[in-house]
Write a structure and sequence with these properties.
This protein is an alpha+beta fold. The chain contains 11 helices and 26 strands. The protein starts with a helix and ends with a helix.
């Protein structure tokens, strides 16, 4: 499996996903001067570019800024299912939103898939798009009546679904399943590269390697000090980097893991697959497995299998305190069910689950009326990103939108969905404080190459990682968002915040919000660490 260090590619993780390796690195110039625009969009993933595409089609002046390259965030780390089959079951959504609004939820995701297909045709984007069925099977810990309940709820929501025995017969996959028609798959980075080309062709401007360090109602200032003045500002950064508190109390970050396995061509029928998830009494979100295929070469297809989710930065609270073991569990699960030849890819991504199971798309609450956000992807970030390309332009243009009220960030469903909020908030807080000091060590001698620990110097905490036996990277241990102590991620070689999901490289560069500034960094030889402790403390 290739990593960023081996390829020189820059993404939100150390592993290179299949999508990243098989698409062009789409770079534009870096902003080098002050400028102004009608609409500023921060974030060059599927949400930001979908919004920009619609606005430039309408003749609006648009600037997109991305601190990496196009698709270097979570868009390139997905498994790329295009589906109206959501992480939260439709019978559960009906209890929160009622039957009529649940119909709108289903319709919005199906419309997003239709929109992708329409844009592909209009812009002649080659991105391996195909329509196919999705199949939801019963996890062995789940009860058969959950499939029956979901069938009736999905039918009432207006989806084309049938109840039957499993359509594709694999090892250890039997029993009833639901088949959802007219779902889809595609290559997400080829698609958004095509979107970017279309935006520029229509007069939009894209800047890459341009970090919006501060954002307010007048626009943004980049890390290099250049001001972008705008009438409307859209923050499409997965987790909103302009918001300190409000939205981060309404959603919870999870890490999810993906493998890409080679299987003999045409040995598995081409469909999307999900199970209903491990039914744990103490879990508000049930971890599940999700599978799809992609063309690979003339001999093999690529089986893309994901799952094994856990709260970001709280791996110690799960049954296996090592992120790398998650891939082994995925490989074991997939090998029991599919004819795997070998493993070609491993990568992970980050999912933000909202407390009420829907994304937040619209005006930023308790902020100026010209600032908009897209967040809370709930495992369906691709379709939500495309939805944002309709909802936010309509809000900017003061036009009615069928789905705007449903997804508005200021909504409140605490009375009906509050149990999830309380469970996740209290559990997360408890787990954080219970594991807060688990990585503290007294000496750097206990830090192996490729590992990271927390060291205390005169009562202050520092995050120390070891590249090799000679050199250490030392960064301040408190997240630049709200000061929670970060945790070492053994898989991605990153420092992850267990409170709200901010992530930093081992040298302290921020790679995931809500943090929007780096951790201070100090590089030192391991033999000189004790000698220069005072200097480290003064520097960091």
């Amino acid at each position: 499996m290739k990593t960023n260090k081996e390829t020189g590619q820059v993404t939100a993780g150390s592993h290179i996903s299949y999508w990243t390796e098989t698409s062009r690195q789409n770079k534009y110039s870096t902003l080098t001067m002050d400028t102004e625009t009608d609409i500023l969009i921060v974030g060059g993933g599927i949400a930001g570019l979908s919004i920009a595409y619609q606005l430039v089609k309408e003749g609006r002046k648009v600037i997109v800024v991305e601190d990496g390259i196009i698709g270097s965030g979570e868009t390139g780390r997905t498994s790329a299912h295009l589906s109206a089959v959501l992480d939260t079951r439709y019978f559960e959504l009906q209890t929160i939103y009622g039957k009529e609004q649940t119909k709108l939820i289903a319709a919005s995701h199906m419309k997003a898939i239709d929109t992708i297909e329409e844009i592909i045709r209009a812009e002649l984007i080659e991105c391996d798009f195909k329509r196919l069925s999705g199949q939801l099977s019963l996890h062995e810990t789940d009860k058969p009546e959950s499939i029956a309940k979901e069938y009736h709820a999905a039918m009432e929501a207006g989806l084309d679904v049938t109840f039957q025995e499993f359509v594709c017969h694999f090892k250890n996959i039997t029993g009833p399943c639901l088949e959802f028609k007219n779902q889809a798959s595609f290559h997400p980075l080829k698609y958004i590269n095509g979107l970017a080309d279309a935006i520029v062709k229509r007069g939009g401007t894209i800047y890459t390697s341009t970090h919006a360090k501060s954002i307010d109602s007048t626009g943004a200032i980049t890390s290099e000090g250049h001001r972008i003045t705008a009438k409307h500002i859209v923050v499409a950064t997965n987790s909103p980097v302009n918001n300190k508190y409000m939205m981060h109390l309404h959603q919870f970050p999870y890490r999810t893991y993906v493998i890409g396995a080679l299987i003999k061509k045409d040995s598995v029928c081409d469909a999307l697959f999900w199970d209903t998830g491990v039914q744990k009494k103490d879990a508000s979100f049930q971890p599940y497995h999700y599978v799809r295929l992609s063309d690979y070469n003339n001999v093999f297809d690529l089986l893309i299998c994901g799952g094994e989710d856990h709260p970001t930065g709280l791996i110690e609270a799960t049954d296996n305190p090592d992120e790398k073991q998650k891939y082994k569990k995925l490989i074991n699960w997939a090998s029991e069910r599919f004819p795997i030849e070998s493993i070609a890819y491993e990568w992970s991504g980050q999912v933000l689950y909202s407390y009420d199971s829907l994304a937040f798309i619209g005006k930023n609450p308790f902020d100026h009326g010209n600032i908009y956000i897209v967040t809370g992807d709930c495992g369906n970030g691709l379709t939500y990103g495309v939805m944002a390309g309709s909802i936010i332009p309509d809000l900017i243009n003061e036009k009615p939108n069928l789905f705007a009220d449903l997804y508005k960030p200021s909504r409140c469903k605490l009375l009906k969905a509050g149990k999830v909020f309380l469970d996740e908030f209290i559990k997360g807080l408890t787990d954080y404080y219970k594991n807060k000091d688990s990585q503290i060590v007294e000496s750097i001698d206990s830090i192996a190459p490729g590992d990271g620990k927390i060291i205390e110097i005169d009562g202050s905490k520092y995050a120390v990682s070891r590249n090799n036996y000679e050199w250490l990277d030392v960064v301040s241990a408190e997240c630049t968002h709200l000061g929670c102590v970060v945790k070492w991620n053994k898989d991605e070689n990153s420092w992850d915040c267990p409170c709200h999901g901010s992530r930093f490289t081992q040298t302290g560069i921020v790679i995931n919000g809500p943090a929007n500034s780096n951790l201070n960094h100090y590089k030192i030889k391991s033999t000189e660490f004790d000698k220069y402790k005072t200097q480290i403390k003064e520097t960091l």
